[in-house]
Amino acid sequence: MLKEKNTLFTIGQFAALHEINKKTLMWYDEINLLKPACIKENGYRYYSYQQSATLETILMLRELNVSLEEIRQFVNHRTIESFDNLLKEKIAELSQTISHLKSVQKILSKHQQDMEILRSLDISKISLVQKQKRYLVTVPVTPDISFDMEIAQVIAKTKKYQLRRLHDASYGAMISMENLYAGNFDKYTALYIEMPYPVAKKGLHLQSGGTYLRAFYKGSWDKISDKYKEILAYANNKGLSLCGFAYETGINELVIDHIDEYITQIEIPVISK
Description:
single chain, about 270 residues, alpha+beta, 9-stranded antiparallel sheet, 3-stranded antiparallel sheet, elongated
């Protein structure tokens, strides 16, 4: 802490003290955001020790992407209430940004896991895996709803649950085991979008954690029924009871050029007989 609080600093000293460029201080002077404490006869600008707190506040608000006009209004009318309201607003925005970045981190990690799976993937292999529960936004698939309407519903749901972009989450399709056991392999139940950090869980579909059968299908979806027949036969031979829904998701769409190379991961909850 400086011993002499009445010390005046040259523009160069004041800029160095706050680790900014002298041009920044000159600009703040020009736009009446932070004017020098005094300008002496030689035309040199001088700043006071007391202005340090004001400048640090300005720099903090700029780092938080507060507009210059908002900062100017605050600096010219500083009160406990105005600063408290500004802080509350920016804390809320930061919380949303942090939540968004965590979501992005989670989906990037998922993509990385998919790439690791692809490196040593045996398409023909059917295995049992353990999964954590997750919350899904679902959009029903019905014969009387057009594809355009389904997309419109997906967009509406993402906005409702504050998902900024579709690629902030994994997504896919669901088909009930009731339909699969009945041989209705193309009768899908819903489209789904995973919410990495759901704002509210009410109205979301809970995909329970536990043991899942995992299989893979390569190619366009017109022959995926053959894979489901293979899955049902495998489960029957192993004494496994499949329940709930089959959850489909693409795992290599970011690294392919043709639909024939598309790999669909299928996961279905398992109950041992």
